[in-house]
Amino acid sequence: MTTTDPAQASRQIHFRDRRAPQGIQFDLERLLMALLPPVLEDSQLVFRAPVKVGGVPYNILLRFEAALPKINCYSLRIHASWDKLPAIHHEYFRKSFNGWFDFWTHDFKSTTPPAPEEGSTERYQALVAQTLAAEERLKTIPALQQEIVTAMRAGAWFSTAHKEGGTTIRFERGRFVRADYGESEQVEEFYEEVAFFAFLKKFYHSETSRNLYPEKASDLVAWKLILRLLSRKMD
């Protein structure tokens, strides 16, 4: 579905995916660098987030539509409005909107919405409970930090890449190691978690606030987004 006018645009995609709702949520949060907290609305699980891209406000709505025996049905709707921005740029914003929508949904294969009788209410409710429990478990900064270091000690890592090189951040031989490659070959080691957390927060400061400009992410939001950036073997 696509709707447009000179100062705003909306598009929606229906798709099916084997992942549970929090799997879709986490991947979109990592892609958008914005949190999509789960909320129950009329017994249906939805996820909403506002983001800014190039100064344009976007509103993201992910909806968990139905739980089939082996796959789940979702819809993703994205709306943007640039009516308060100079009219001379409206055509550019409209083209950009389509580009961002295609980029954010490139992993989803468009399909038809589920029929009203499709899906299991029992399985749907179990997946909703699982999603809400996952959200509840990580409500504080210490819990988020502990989740990060536990995962890193089990082999998870952070990585960045750009045209001059990149950075990897891992746990190796009893300490956390930041190693640059390419133009820079800087290496930093952290034996204490407190020092490592201070480094990690500063390292991802710009990334965690990139779609909030000119505002900055709160500490809690920043740590949730940093957790989303963690790479694991199952990703």
Account of the protein in words:
The chain is α+β, with helices and mostly antiparallel strands. The protein has 2 domains: 2-137, 2-Layer Sandwich (TBP-like), CATH 3.30.2030; 141-228, no CATH class. 35% of the residues lie in helices and 32% in strands. The protein is built from 7 helices and 10 strands. Strands 1-2-6-5-4-3 form a 6-stranded antiparallel β-sheet, with helices on one face.
Explain briefly what this protein structure is.
The protein is α+β, with helices and mostly antiparallel strands and 235 residues long.
End-to-end separation? 30 Å
Number of DSSP-assigned strands: 10
Instruction: Enumerate the spans where pLDDT stays under 50 for 5 or more consecutive residues.
Output: none
Overall mean pLDDT: 93
Q: Tell me the number of structural domains.
A: 2
**Strand arrangement, largest sheet?**
1-2-6-5-4-3
The major pleated sheet works out as: 6 strands, antiparallel
Number of helices: 7
Helix content: 25-40%
What shape does the CA trace take? globular
CATH architecture of the largest domain: 2-Layer Sandwich
Q: Kindly name the structural category.
A: alpha+beta
Tags for this model:
235 residues, alpha+beta, TBP-like, 4-stranded antiparallel beta sheet, globular
Helix/strand layout:
Layout: E1 2-5, E2 8-17, H1 21-32, E3 38-41, E4 44-53, E5 56-67, E6 72-81, H2 90-104, H3 121-137, H4 141-153, E7 158-162, E8 165-172, E9 175-182, E10 187-190, H5 193-203, H6 205-208, H7 219-228
Antiparallel strand pairs: 1-2, 2-6, 3-4, 4-5, 5-6, 7-8, 8-9, 9-10
Helix pairs in contact: 4-7
